[in-house]
Write a structure and sequence with these properties.
- The chain has three domains: 163 residues, no CATH class; 157 residues, C8orf32 fold (Roll); 77 residues.
- 41% of the residues are buried.
- Helix content is 30%, strand content 26%.
- It has twelve helices and 19 strands.
- Helix 2 crosses helix 4 and helix 6 packs antiparallel against helix 8.
Length: 413
């Protein structure tokens, strides 16, 4: 007797809700089949989990799998980080799942994976790797699979996605996303350095996106490129989408922040080294001392940071293990020569003068350690030496200090 088991997952990243039910039917050529349906929903930054109702399953044919797509590591295309963490047999299922989501049709998971000892318990982790690597699957809300067993042996698994829209609606939305992304890429430094590309994307998304918990589609890139309102996962996937379009390796990272909230950001490879980038935390609004109201500013504390710097405020989580990021050559403050190793009058004069010449609204620099930051704060604030770096007309100054990231910002106007 062959037993067919159908399991349905809806994934938006976050809290889990379990629903269950059973029904019985006939499988062609067999005595009896049993089908069980379950639904799981995860969601970032939400206090309640949305419920995904199980959809009807179609009977599987039992045909041999097609073999999936070409291995992306061998095709000369963009390298995908999460894919690279998988075993050879797991990569086969990753490719099968990718084919299913692209075509929006069911796909048999390779029997080579089953022969290697894999089963339905491996699907969730592989699917998460796929979603971490591919922000273009904006319409995918989860997945469902049908499992076929003979006795205690699994003889086949059929996989398909759960989608937020039909084919026509998906194509319409994809066109809008590509049009808006193309406008951004037209101005991008496509032939610049890796660092210049990441900085451009970081700044552009911060300046053109409003953080809004109530934004629609806020778990995918449509919210950023079309609606210009999103939350952390929208920012992170939009960052990834643009950088991949520019030929760079970038993946989604999941975890929490020091407030305990779920959060998403990126891992990106710059000149062969990995860095963390948190575009959401780059989006900050401040109020100047002139009473002119909030002014949009870019917070560079999370532009190409090491693991050590990231873990001061973030905690890594999720299914995919992350590398230890130790290189600082592409860090914003290092690259822009804005790091102080002590109270350096000449360097501070250059930093402030350069900002004024470029007509910037603010000046930000970073200290190498807590002792350096304490010294600089005392000199500039307690001893009021900040005014020697400002135009004679300046009588007051607004500032902010990030003690965890060892940075200081002063507003010039």
């Amino acid at each position: 007797m062959i037993r067919k088991r159908s399991v349905i997952f809806g994934i938006l990243l976050g809290i889990c809700v379990l629903l269950g039910g059973c029904r019985y039917g006939e499988y062609p050529g067999m005595e009896q089949t049993q089908e069980e349906a379950f639904s799981h929903t995860w969601k970032f930054e939400e206090t309640e989990a949305a419920k995904t109702e199980p959809s009807d399953m179609q009977e599987a044919s039992g045909e041999e799998p097609s073999g999936g797509q070409e291995d992306p590591e061998q095709s000369g295309e963009i390298s995908y980080y999460a894919y690279g963490t998988l075993s050879e047999s797991e990569r086969l299922w990753y490719q099968d799942m990718e084919k299913a989501l692209v075509s929006m049709e069911e796909q048999h998971l390779s029997k080579a994976g089953l022969n290697a000892g894999m089963d339905e318990t491996d699907i969730a982790g592989i699917f998460q790797c796929l979603m971490n690597d591919h922000p273009e699957f904006f319409y995918v809300e989860g997945y469902q699979y049908t499992k076929y067993t003979r006795g205690n042996q699994t003889v086949g698994i059929v996989f398909t996605g759960n989608y937020s829209a039909n084919n026509i609606e998906v194509e319409s939305r994809r066109t809008k996303i590509e049009e808006e992304a193309a406008k951004i890429l037209e101005q991008a430094p496509l032939y610049g350095s890796d660092y210049e590309k990441v900085k451009y994307v970081y700044e552009t998304l911060v300046k053109n996106t409003e953080y809004d918990l109530e934004a629609s589609d806020n778990q995918n890139i449509y919210s950023v490129f079309v609606n210009h309102k999103s939350v952390c996962q929208g920012y992170a996937k939009a960052t990834q989408y643009l950088l991949q379009k520019m030929g760079m390796e970038c993946t989604l990272v999941q975890g929490t922040v020091d407030t305990g909230e779920s959060h998403a950001w990126n891992l990106v490879k710059v000149d062969g080294a990995y860095y963390y980038v948190d575009t959401t935390w780059g989006d900050a609004s401040y109020r100047t001392g002139t009473g002119a109201g909030p002014q949009l500013s870019v917070n560079y504390d999370y532009l190409c940071v090491t693991t050590e710097q990231l873990l001061r405020t973030h905690t890594l989580g999720g299914e995919v293990s992350m590398p230890e990021c130790t290189d600082s050559a592409a860090n914003y403050y290092v690259k822009e020569d804005l790091v102080l190793d002590g109270y350096d009058v000449d360097k501070l004069q250059r930093i402030f003068r350069q900002a004024q010449e470029q007509q910037k609204a603010d000046v930000t620099f970073k200290c190498v350690d807590e002792a350096c930051l304490a010294t600089v704060k005392k000199k500039l604030l307690d001893d009021r030496e900040i005014f020697q770096y400002l135009p004679d007309t300046e009588k007051q100054i607004s500032y902010a200090c990030n003690d965890k990231q060892l940075s200081m910002t002063f507003w010039l106007r």
